[in-house]
Design goal:
This protein is α+β, with helices and mostly antiparallel strands and about 400 residues long. The protein contains 14 helices and ten strands. About 50% of the residues lie in helices and about 15% in strands. A hairpin with a 2-residue loop joins β2 and β3.
Length: about 400
Amino acid sequence: MIDASLRRSADVDLTDEQQDFVRSVRDYCSREFPPDRLATITSRYEDLHSDEVAQQMAGLGWYGLTIDESYGGSGGTFLDAALFLEETAHGRAPIGGYGVTLIVVGAINRFGDEEQKRDLLGRVTQGGGLAIAMSEPESGSDVASLKTSAAREDGTWVLNGSKMWCSYAHKASHILIVCRTERTGNPHEGISMIFVPRDADGLTITPISTLGGKETNELHLEDCRVPADALLGAEGGGWTQLMAGLNNERVILGATALGLAQRAFDDALAYAKERRQFGRPIGSFQAIQHKFAQLATDLAQARLLVRWVARMTDDDPNRMLPQEASMVKLACTELAKRCALEGMQVMGGYGYATEYPMERYLRAAVVTTIYGGTSEIQKNIIAKTLGL
């Protein structure tokens, strides 16, 4: 497993500094999260985000990768963040809330005012978390149909409504609520984004039990008041702001899924080399070899895609990449699911047993094709960019 993983350092043309960074993160995860300790940190894999680990990584300068040095970050690139996401997912680092935090950081970098940057980005560089709430009970893939409202009243915003599937809201200091501040005939108009502290009066966070553990929540806002300066960017500009962040969001989710896919592949490969049946390792059978040959090829392709789009984002952060970013999300999440399913098949009963991690990889992989825009939505977007 180690050899197969280390060969990845020689793939795309990373700089020496980036390769050293990747090795550092990989070594850290290998050292800090052996199975027994990981089980303890995560309460038997129920709580997949450790504030203590996040703070340790912040101390290493890793939590503020895409944050400017003037706000306490390390001033890295978006590609650096993609490398970090892949390696921490592969290394099973219990920082499940980092991906969504990074999505919100991207929005603050582009649309936040100076005070928001100093406060919220400063929190992240210390290992703090942020969350974003878009989906609602009757508004999922059709985000523009959202009903949660925010109205101005006595110099404050008063929010009312419900949100669903808000990942790691219970770990965040602030939640970015996508809401409607004006109703017009166009569903894409009148949408705004407002920060609400996790402990704000009128905000109730209710955990949702899932296959993956304690990840997501339902939010209820009842006359929840926040200051006027909690608005991110322009009032009514929320839809444009959401669209502007899709490159980042889909690459973030794709890079994380890629790390999970590689982990499932590596574990299954190690098993195939050691497990013997009919007097020889099962990896010597052509049926098994072909599975790994195809998955290895798909992993190489997905990695190239992730890093290509991350580099294009770094070259021009204002450039919209709907086709390419949707391809990243689609390719990497479907691959994560396929690697985990094939890994379970290769391992047989051992892959299905909770004593081994493959079944957890599968549970983690399944949801990646749903959140952040389902695979079907990504295909719709790609088809639209082809003129269909």
